[in-house]
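Reader question, answered in our methods column.
A reader sent in the components of a multi-part assembly and asked whether the whole thing could be modeled at once rather than chain by chain. We filled in our standard form and ran it. Here is what they sent:
COMPLEX SIZE: two components
ENTRIES:
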Amino acid sequence: MSIAAPGLGVAQAGSRRWRKPPFIADPRLRYAIYAGLLIYLVIGIGSVNFNWDRMIAGLDRGVAFVSAFLTPDFTSRWTDISKGLLESLTMTLIATVFGVILSIPVALGAARNIAPWPIYAFCRSIIAVSRAFQEVVIAIVFVAMFGFGPFAGAMTLAFATIGFLGKLLAEDIEDIDRSQVEAVRATGGSWFQLLNYAIQPQVAPRFIGLCIYRLDINFRESAVIGIVGAGGIGATLNTALSRYEYDSAAAILLAIIVIVFIAEYSSGYIRRKFL
Amino acid sequence: MLQIEGLTMRYPTGDLALDNVDLTVERGQVIALIGPSGAGKSTLIRCVNRLVEPTAGAIRLNGTDIVSMGRANLRRTRRRLGMIFQEYALVERLSVMENVLSGRLGYVGFWRSFLRHYPQSDIDEAFRLLERVGLDHMVDKRADALSGGQRQRVGIARALMQSPDILLVDEPTASLDPKTSRQIMRLITGLCRERGLGAIINIHDVPLAMQFVGRIVGLRAGEIVYDGPPSGLDDQRLTDIYGEEDWSGTRARDGDEDSDEAEVQTNAARKVVSAVDLPEMKKVAAS
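And here is the structure of the entire assembly that came back:
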């Protein structure tokens, strides 16, 4: 049944009424879904148990944390902080460069319009594996494999970059204007010339944007994976927090924020240059 | 020079786009391929350079069959088949010069093309062609900064850079205004005459085809239903090709030549016009 236009009967002669057809045609099903969602929401809210005592107890620590932000201490742990930041930046840059280099062939293979079936399936599965695991999970595995330190971190970020960039770049390649590809093929160009002349110019601005965005993400992730032992500023942050040195932790967080801001603004500038 | 024999193309969906088509293009002969949308015009010229793989038949360029060729040979043969596209199909983010030089991709190695380090003879030829189509002042403009007519001129220069034997032209004027359409048709047919090139020009605009081209081939539902001079294209023939319609006025249109010439921008372009305005064209246009 898909009668979904109330008032159809009252249409005057000569003027036909029109209403946008609803997404779910059957009204019974539609209202059943609405009701189901509402019930789920109510039960869901009910199932979250707020522990007020715990929250009040934690409030003190929260206040201490926030007030430490007002008095960040850059000096007493400065050598650790600067070393951590430098390590993170190095890790980020190396991971991004290698991740990008590795992701390009994966992306080419994962674009349905230029890759044959077996290669497509293979590259898509690489992307799926890379994307299936959160950075922290991969970091734990790599720390177990390679030991504590920034090497495991760089490996983690490079691996995650392949999935991210491979997927988004492949989708961008699948969206390119086919006629430009056809035109270059018609000149008798080889496959590599086709890449260089017909595909690269079409995807270059977005590719550069994605690389800078991933650099940004990798830096932020480096702070997180450091907590599980993969080196960098995250390790420093973890140490500061476990020593209850909130003022130093605040200094670290502020440093991260400043660097992310710099990355944000410079990426906007670079992308405008390339578009 | 180009012989198409028994060319049949059936799409995987089961649609028969071309049904046993025979067509021969002599050296230096320009053909206009007309017919309703979906008649198989685009498929036909795409089969010639195998952007579309034909189902059956033979296509011989100077005696060599294209359909049975391996990939390396096909690439070499594609160099001799210049193609001009409906929506220009320029690489938008490359410059005019890069687009024109891309016509040489089949001749130069990967690294040369990658570094844009083309042989000087290619660069000389590119400048000559750009001057010929009246765009030598826009060499380093990006293709997406050009107007429709200018883009099509770049597309023409790119096709000619291949030093082709034959041009495959797919609706060259479909996205252009009537005046620019005439200029582009005049340019294409003029260049073909200068260089002794054959051409198959797919075109929707019947009067335009009749004005510029000496041999018209009508395609309907994948079959050739007319092959002859524009003068033979009477109401009955048009009905054969397109179906029943009131055809009065279709063949009577002529001459916005005067206004054309007044606004041609550069001297180079002016030369083009005068080179192409030959008496027999006038005759065709008037008939």
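What stands out: The domain at 75-274 of chain A is CATH 1.10.3720.10 (MetI-like fold). The radius of gyration of chain A is 26 Å.
Send us your own complexes using the same form.
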